[in-house]
Amino acid sequence: LRAQTAGVKQAIDNSEMAISLMQTGEAALDEVSLSLVRARQLAIHAANEAVNDEMMLEADQQEFDQIVASINRISKNTQYGQKFLLDGSGAGNGVTTGKNLSFVNADVTGRSSGVYGYDIDIKQAATRSTHTGTAALTQQIIDAEEQITITESGRKVNFRTIAGTNIEQTMNQLSNAMKEAGVNVELVTPKGDAASRNAPQTLTLRHTKYGSEPFFQVSSNTAGLFSKVANVSERVKNGLDIAGEIAKEGAQGRGQVLTGKGGFGSKAEGIAIRYTGENAPPAGQRA
Q1: What is the pLDDT of residues 129-171, one digit of tens each?
Q2: pTM (2 decimals)?
Q3: What domains are defined for the chain?
Q4: What is the DSSP string of 254-269?
Q5: CB 156 within 8 A of CB 149
Q6: Total Cβ atoms within 10 A of residue 132
Q7: 259 C-beta neighbours (distance < 10 Å), count
Q8: Strands 120-124 and 185-187, how do they pair?
């Protein structure tokens, strides 16, 4: 009887701890839900182009970034005892052996591969949206105080060259201006010695994120320096998503991440891997 009583008491304690764990997770998810509602309100507000100006859109973007950061903090810090509840650590685990490959996650729908693993066949590596001007940056253009405008994710860089500044210094100033503005765009710096870097340069801008979704806009006073037509913004969206197969099954690419599509009898549904190579492996060679 004493043994049965102790067992029942422990079962009750276990249930109470499980309830406490669920309540902790529920409270955190309530906060996430409120944050997502506010994010939706911001998106609807930002879509009202008739009344919004650039300052209002930038304010919306800043608040949206704060909401995303708040949700990330909740996911990383919500825990019961030493067990983290929302950081994804309870998802499927895996390892990769191919060059430039890393395991991202696996849904419960994916099947275990066993000790032999699944083949990863990369057919196309992800690329970034990139734009190269057709006219070189010269000292004459710099001295004329060229205006360059770059817009990305609601953030804007209004950069004007300074007369008397050399080409290398001007390129460094443009790079710093983009970093300070927080745009996800970088200036691809040419290699070479100081003398060659101060020669007229054809400039290339590149998004820092991979895939077909990220894009930016750019314009320049001088036709061809960045935009084809002077002072007319040009939209750059030519990045590619990764393409390939997991376990000889179709997979969906988004940026550098390849995820099993699933379907009837699928083994790789929800299994996601990341490929960081600049090019797909040679034909017939798996990653």
Answers
A1: 999 999 999 999 999 999 999 999 999 999 999 999 999 999 9
A2: 0.69
A3: 2-84 (1.20.1330.10), 101-126+241-275 (no CATH), 128-236 (2.60.40)
A4: ETTEEEE---TT-SST
A5: yes
A6: 12
A7: 22
A8: unpaired
